[in-house]
Write a sequence for this structure.
């Protein structure tokens, strides 16, 4: 049977009880507020040792928060970790700096290898050709995803004049989706933690008939309704998701747009550089 969703978050429960806690419980609370993800990773005894309190303090602490036992509290924290919040992924430092650096680099290489093992150059070229032949290219991204959408738009606009990055400040997505047509191409980044409306927005974009490419984390179920779905590995050795594979895919797509554009389309690049010199802009 599926567990009911708790009404209060784990951290809200701690903050609500903080003033009433005994000194040892408050010391544990201060530790957990800094590293809430530790609760999901360690046993009660391990957490007690990390926070320098007794096992009995840990038991009183979770009961004060309204949990039956430590395991119930741990299940709640694990469920909140799935939201992707960075705070729940922060852990107390343990490894020496050289091991930390090695772990990050190792994870980055693994993410790139695993991501591109499921992506072919032909697929990327198909997207690039669709962008080059489209009436207009729309590139969508919210929160973290917006940085990749803006970067791709900035790069391909040197070749494809009618390129738009969304959303715009002060405007709704509906105002833009109403302008998307079958002859257009849409690139949408849907990386966690995504805005709640993203699936609805994507559904409406698909209904326009435009060719649509979506980039998500690797744990997202394959979206059959879009034209292309690229899933990138974003596992990390630290609290922030690693987006190196996403950046590599974005850069490769922009590169292939330029390489497949042909001499005539690349004339826009020449014109831009001439103007840079003329107005001493760069």
């Amino acid at each position: 049977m599926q567990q009911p969703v708790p009404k209060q978050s784990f951290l809200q429960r701690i903050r609500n009880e903080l003033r009433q806690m005994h000194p040892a419980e408050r010391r544990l609370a201060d530790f957990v507020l800094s590293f809430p993800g530790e609760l999901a990773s360690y046993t009660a005894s391990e957490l007690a040792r990390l926070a320098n309190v007794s096992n009995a303090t840990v038991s009183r602490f979770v009961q004060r928060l309204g949990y039956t036992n430590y395991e119930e509290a741990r299940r709640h924290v694990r469920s909140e970790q799935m939201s992707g919040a960075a705070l729940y992924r922060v852990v107390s430092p343990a490894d020496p700096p050289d091991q930390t650096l090695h772990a990050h680099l190792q994870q980055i290489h693994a993410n790139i290898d695993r991501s591109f093992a499921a992506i072919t150059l032909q697929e990327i070229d198909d997207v690039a050709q669709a962008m080059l032949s489209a009436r207009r290219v729309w590139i969508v991204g919210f929160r973290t995803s917006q940085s990749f959408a803006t970067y791709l738009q900035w790069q391909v606009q040197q070749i494809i004049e009618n390129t738009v990055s969304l959303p715009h400040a002060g405007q709704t997505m509906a105002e833009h989706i109403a302008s998307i047509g079958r002859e257009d191409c849409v690139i949408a980044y849907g990386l966690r933690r995504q805005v709640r409306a993203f699936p609805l927005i994507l559904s409406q974009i698909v209904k326009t008939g435009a060719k649509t490419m979506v980039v998500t984390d690797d744990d997202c179920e394959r979206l059959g309704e879009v034209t292309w779905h690229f899933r990138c590995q974003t596992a990390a050795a630290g609290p922030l998701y690693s987006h190196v594979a996403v950046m590599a895919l974005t850069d490769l797509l922009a590169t292939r747009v330029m390489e497949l554009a042909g001499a005539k389309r690349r004339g826009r690049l020449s014109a831009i550089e001439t103007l840079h010199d003329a107005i001493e802009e760069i």
